[in-house]
Design a protein that fits this description.
This protein has 296 residues and is mainly α. The protein is 65% helix and 0% strand. The N terminus is likely disordered.
Length: 296
Amino acid sequence: HRLADRHVDARHRCALHHGARTVDPLGDVPERIDGLLQAQALCQQLAHPAVAAEVARGSQHQVAQARQAHEGVGAGAQGQGVPKDLAESVKWRRKAADAGYATAQFEMGVLYENGLGVERDVGQAFGWYKRGAEAGDALAQHNLSVMYLNGLGVAADRDKARVWMQKAADQGLIAAIRTLGGYNEMGVGAPADVKQALEWYIKAANAGDTLAMVRLGQMYAAGVGVTADLVQALKWFHAAADKGDANGQNMLGIAYENGLGAPRDYAEALKFYRAAADQGLAGRRHLGAVRRGRTT
């Protein structure tokens, strides 16, 4: 039983998993950048490997979220008081998984990894993901890769992480295509290759992945794997922001506040900072600076 579109948007996949990390490329950016040298310093910060690491991490929890939401499986549905319908759902999924259905095997991995209707057990999660991956389920292959990358339920193995992410990408899973960009940028399972990373990010971004769009904007801004081009950077930040991505909105706030790729425009900066802040992202800390007499 196919539960949801397998090419789900990464923003939505983050929502249910409380421990999922979000990309905040603005962690150390000064609130005021008053000249070209400072603006260039900003672009260099965007090239920091820690940003790529977050993109590469490709949390399996994120990939699972759309399916959990579709089935009404919430984070509170664990331990005592498991709803009867959830218990029944686990029961029938297990039957299907035991019978060899790859999608059900993936879903059992999700349930065990998150402790949904069962006791949380990353070893069991790894085992179910592996069965699903070997049976050809792209989401299981993606999640198995991340288990190997992070050493969850198995000894960390970056080579195997890359192999399984490649298999998922070969099936067209957008999250895997974007994550391969991160693997290439960070040298997971092969020497780092930022030009190859750029190609994977472009492929994912053209398929609608907003994390890839934001990372592309950062790479163009900082000249990572490509000639620096602030206009192209702004284009990709806009593409992500137009899809409601808070990181893209926040990056646009910085761009417009400092005239990066477009004329300086405090009103536009304020608009995008506010949009990002409404989603709880770091734009909130830039909002006050722009408000204080800088929008007139």
